[in-house]
Amino acid sequence: MLRIALNRAMSALVLVVIASVFSFILVAAFPGNVAALIAELRGGFVSQAVVDKVAEEYRLRDPLLYRYGYWVADVVHGDFGKSLRTGEEVSTAIEKRLEPTLVMIAGGGIVMLVVGLVLSFCGALWPGGLVDRFIRALAVVNISVPKFFLAAMLIYAFGVIMNLLPTFGFRGPTSWILPSIAIGLVPGALLSRVARVSLEEAMSRPFVITAMSKGFGRRRILLRDALPNIVPVVLTAFGMNLAFMIQSAIVIEPIFAWQGIGAYFVDAARFRDLPVLQSCLLLFSVLFIIVNLVVDLLVIVVDPLQRRAMRG
Amino acid sequence: MIQTVGSATPILDVRNLTVTLHTPKTSVRPVDRVSYTVNEGEILAIVGESGSGKTILNLAPLGLLPAGVDSDIEGSVRFEGQDVLTSGEDKLRAVRGGGIGVIFQDPLSALNPVRKIGRQIAEVAEEHLKLTPRAAEQRAGELLSLVGLPDPLSRLQQYPHELSGGQRQRVGIAMSIAGEPRLLIADEPTTALDVTVQAQIVSLLKDLQRRLKMAIVMITHDIGVVSGMATKVAVMYAGRLAEIGSVDDVLTRSVHPYTLGLLNSVPTLKAPIGSRFSGLPGSPPDLSRRIDGCAFMPRCSQAIPNCERGRPPLVHAPGDSPEHLAACPVVMNKLADELA
Amino acid sequence: MKAIKDLYKAVGLPICFLIGFFIFIAVFGKYVSPYDPNAQNLLKASQTFSAEHWFGTDNLGRDTLSRLVAGARTTLFGVTLVLLMAGSVGMVIGTISGYFGGWLDEILMRIIDFGLSVPSLVVALAIVGVFGPDFWNMILALAIAWVPIYARLARGVVAAAVNQPYIESLRVLGASRTRIIVKHLTPAALGSVLIYASADAGVLALNIANLSFLGLGVQPPQAEWGQMLVAALPYLEEAPRLVILPGLSLTIMVIGFNLLGEAIALAKNPRPMSKRRLFQRRREFLKEIAA
Prior knowledge:
The complex is a heterotrimer of chains A (312), B (340) and C (291). By secondary structure, chain A is mostly helical.
């Protein structure tokens, strides 16, 4: 088992390296004179000499491979460069903005879990019934709704019409509710679909007939027999959706005016803030790879060698 | 009507049972007006080829069909006097496991791979004997040693894939008797096992039956198992009962051409080496279609014109046993001759 | 024609209607909209539903209905473009990788794996961020982000098919490599890709809207629903319809795509029979058996 874990970790490491290469190359491919851009942003008189000095400073004339090396060395030491837009250290900016994003994702994760599990169970308890079909229809709608539209509607309903919940800014627990719902509802529907399909599949396996022959009813079989069988699949789906929430945060943070990493990334994209773009891209990629790795390992723990041995 | 010898109410009384199954792809009738009884302490073996309906016969009335299959069931199936086909869900659940235990053919798929064996056995005792979890766990341990598994206490904590095929079937048996049922239905319990293990399982079942005084319905296509265990034998063909009687009657004094064909096709050690295998020509009929007359007629060497005229009723086989019956116009003729 | 009939049987009337509707809009939209979507008329700004302007006007006096139609065309155009590009490139990469195997396969798949492990929006956003917000940059960015999944899909199909006996026999018969790839392996891969694409279109449409919503996709004045929505957000209280209508349109289009994908998947896995079918079947069977 340790060997499998090590294997996965190695693959993850390779992916991280590829991520760094990609992040670097993408930004290095900037069409235009980076040095000139930086010089302009710094203000003051821009002459060729100034531009040359900037190129010197950022080692922009060095061969690509060297530049990559410098950048990796910097990153490993925690130096992500300075924002072209604000001049602030990217690392400090990221630290500051970590909290709102994490809160949003955590809240979204809870919403996803609750929505996902409740919907899938109700659907599985009465398959084909009215409840099941309603839930399935709801799930399709949920998955189709654009998150920003959902967020806008939530703001309209709870903020404007009912004036119940705060909609603007990161300001304490009540302000967490709407963004969490906005970001977690759709993954919840996705999760419920995965859970329901797996439950259905599990309930059609022979050991369910055995359980019935022992005199147990459907609800109990669902909970005691089918549920343990679907944990790996649901866990994987949960982890993946959680990772994708980082992407949703990019869109939802601006709507609720939360200063998180997502908003930071968007601002950087709007502004061509290259160092920030590079660092955020790397960060997001690494985060994804790590979450995937953790989920993979968790599945191996929960569904251990035992099952692997059986599947041969 | 089938006469029963012995005054007690049979523990299982099946009358005119007909089962029709519907799946999205097709509909079939694997059981067509079948009647028989099982008395206390009896071991009934139901024999037939695959697809003869012998499994559905027993599982459908209990509602133990796979998902995605809709069933229509007619007739009556009385367990200890009560018709399970008209019982409510609650009563049916009490019967399942508590009154009737089931052993399934493939122990690997019958057990839940992610739950410990101890739990899978103990929960039956909890449910039907109303034991506390700890007492049930203890009972499970006792049952494991009863079925011949050494070192029961550590077995309780193991998972199905840690056991061999024969051990798993023993666990299956333990699960089926944990609720102290009066009737055991064993669906081809030895088919998925090695030959050497088969014999062990058969003797285990006999032993348990004696000790726990259960009736057993044994579904099998293995004549060897039948002769080793059964007291009564029912031969199924194309969803219908071909012949039924005591084990001596059916195995040594069989009358139905199908039974004779089955018995003849079992190779014996005594036959000289190089002698031919004799099987039955042809194949069983399609149960999704109508069957006119006797189902076995196309493959029968003794067929007479009467065999085409409507489904042959069960009649007494010539001889002394009042319980030996067969559905065959040829037999009916012989009976007429005898009476004449 | 037969394909369309099969599709109809598999998918049901409502979805065919929806698809037909969108195709109609895509092709004839320009001739059907009452006004030029970009024509501003400040005198008539921010009007609500009226006979003249069925869905009212936006803050610059542009007719909302025409803009919605134009937005539909933009989205459909974008989705088709991206799927065509990503699909074909992905299929080529996947087929080559699956057919030749070996270290080429390993390397390609590592890169593909990376592409898969980062979500499409982040990659697209980064690309647009570096190269500038522009319709074509957005299309390119999304296409690049979408290639990995199709490459993976195609490779899976090809790698599985390559080991099958019939490919081997083709080789023995002397068929050239290209012939095998083009005539035999590609259609198989194409099937899987098409099925996935039908379900994927919805996600793609959402991402186009996401990017436009952030101001980094379709640029004004070109109409696009995400962009229309974000422009209307400040007016949420006074003119909520300007937010609701584009959002609703997008939702409906994506529902259409999702249902299409689901229906195609359903056609392959039959569900248990409904009560009505069961009754029918029962009657049919009894007639057969008892007659």
